[in-house]
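[step 3/7] fold_predict: job queued, chain A
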Amino acid sequence: MSAMTNSSDASKGALLLIVDDVPVNLSVLGDLLHGAGFKVKAANSGRAALHHAAQEPHPALILLDVMMPEMDGYEVMRRLRQDPATRDIPVILLTALDQPRDEERGFQHGAADYIAKPIKPDVVLARVKSQLQAKLARDWLHDQNAALEAEVARRMDENEQIQTVAIRALAHLAETRDPETGNHIRRTQGYVRLLAQRLRGHPRFAATLDEAYIKMLVRSAPLHDIGKVGIPDSILLKTGKLSEDEWRVMKTHSRLGSEAIELAERDIDQPVQFLLLAKEIARWHHERWDGLGYPDGLAGEAIPLSARVMAVADVFDALISRRVYKEALDFERARASIAAECGRQFDPDVCDAFLAGFAEFAEIAVQHHDGR
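[step 4/7] structure written:
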């Protein structure tokens, strides 16, 4: 608060711009302000005033005559407010016009104050000091707000980085249990981002898929298979086809993943959006549009959008990836396989968006290829 407390002293030596087309008025006003300890620039026309106001250092305050030839004070005010470099400079209007509507017009144009001619020295000095102190207070508040906004932005960015690192660490922990997945996390995250962006303008999804939702969706995507941490090695790492009983155990990974995230939520005081989406993705990305998926047999719109997007991304990546129990499909056969399940396994509109942008999804797959 020291800047605020010493504002009167700080206004001493401030640069003022005085504008009047009458030389004697400039002389009288200049002598008054010089004598009070201010630096003064003088302009005898509106155009000269605009030129001086735009120069560095900018004046801290402008005392502007209204009645001038060629360009009056109101036009000077309008142009000052149009220029980002001068629009925040306070202006005191000086005028012989003394009707209430004249004063009102001045304030409508953005004047900070209004002094009637003939000027009274004590009034001028009091008004000038008052406006300079008000400007110092505004500048101080602006600097404080800018510093606060910068600190908030820094902390938000730091929190986002912490969240991203934590998610990556958990996802890679799951990946170490299933080493064949390779760059599966990066690829599926890329597919999810691209698919959500392509769906953003669709009437069914526009209300949900705003920038914040897509950001959270992409951040959450790596946790879709976190539940595999709870699957026994004898099943997760089996090189052959799973038995019916083993497959039932394997399918529990979706429930285990969502329950693990729920446990994490209990340790915080309020819901976190990305955890909500992570929980949806983990539990329901194996649900099917026709209701024949797992773990809950949800169908159609009952399946959260996050999980419907993840389902297409996850299946496509599984199709083009080699596993010990199967060979990878080439892109065209994978595309045909996805197309065959539109409206059955997958939300038809989500599926159509994927097929329409297939070349871009293939590019992501190539970019993060496992190298095998």
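[step 5/7] annotate
The CA atoms of residues 84 and 310 lie 46 Å apart.
Residues 178-367 form a domain with the Hypothetical protein af1432 fold (CATH 1.10.3210.10).
exit 0
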